[in-house]
Amino acid sequence: MTEATKWTRYWQLGESGSCLPNAEKTRRRIFDHWDEAAAEWPDKAHVLDLGCGSGTLAEHLAAQRKDISVTGVDFAQVEASSAERVTLMPGVDMGDMPLDDASVDVAVSMFGVEYGDPQRWGPELARVLKPGGSFSFIVHHIDSPVVSANMARAATLKALCDDKVGKALLDQDREGLVRQMFDLRLAAGPQAPLVDTVARGLAASFAKDPSERDADWHGFVESSAVECVIIEALEKAAVADPRQWAAQMGDQMEVKHPTFIATPSDERIAWVIEGIRA
Q1: Cβ contact 30:261 at 8 Å
Q2: Residue 261: enclosing H or E segment and its boundaries?
Q3: pLDDT in tens, 231-264
Q4: Region 19-46: what's the mean pLDDT?
């Protein structure tokens, strides 16, 4: 399975591994940033969303500003958007975008651009962004509880995919499956609800015929493997030093002093990296 296929599968699964502490309030803080940023953009701006995923940010921005158009690019085969003035371009490398020189007024990204190599996409962004055009990126903070929680989730998923669990299911060994799940739940800590969810799903497969149980098990293993790959990518992408990270974009990108977004309990969730194309 290629990297692009894994990301495509991830978006098809619906971002099942994403998590935010105090989710509703934290999400509001993130989108407050976008609302304030969008209010400053020029009339009829063409906005580029790097690493757009399923188009959540692009569609929000288009709804906020009725005069702008948003083009989103993503490495995965993301679905087209039904929102007006939003175009999502699947299978696009941020380092090689099918856009004209100086055709973009504003570049944005929400937990997407950091998954790419800024030494590659930085010069490409400088090519498509108009001189004086602005950029605003929200990127994962290395100390974010999102990163730590997802790493714990990946460890639990890998444990749940153990061959002993699969054997108990496929052999219809209900007592054996219960023992496996009990031990995994004890070790899971805050991830215990994940174990409970998987346990209920696997238990439901006992009523199915052998071929269906086999399909259920291998489907779970496959989806878990995809999610773990994405979580590992998240760990690598999270930014420790925003200035050092931003410097890799190249001399044409002038970066302001980085700020951050925190949860209501003051846990740093993301860096905000902004500036202009010189």
Answers
A1: yes
A2: strand 259-262
A3: 999 999 999 999 999 999 999 999 999 999 999 9
A4: 90
| The pLDDT value given to residue 17 | 42
How far apart (Å, rounded) are the C-alpha atoms in residues 180 and 197?
Answer: 14
Cβ of 216: how many Cβ atoms within 10 Å?
17
**pLDDT (mean) for 16-35:** 79
Terminal CA-CA length for the chain: 40
Rounded CA-CA distance 150/194 in Å is 12
Residues with Cβ < 8 Å from 195, sequence gap 6 or more? 156, 160, 181, 184, 185, 188
Reading the block at residue 32, the tokens are 């407050």
Token pair 């490398």: residue:
93
Phi, psi (degrees; rounded to nearest 5) at 275: 170, -160
> Which pairs count as long-range contacts for 197-206, CB under 8 Å and 24+ apart, including other chains?
198/160, 202/165, 202/169, 202/177, 203/174, 203/177, 205/169, 206/169, 206/172, 206/174
Predicted pLDDT at 18: 47
Four-residue CA torsion sign, 193, 31, 57, 269 = negative
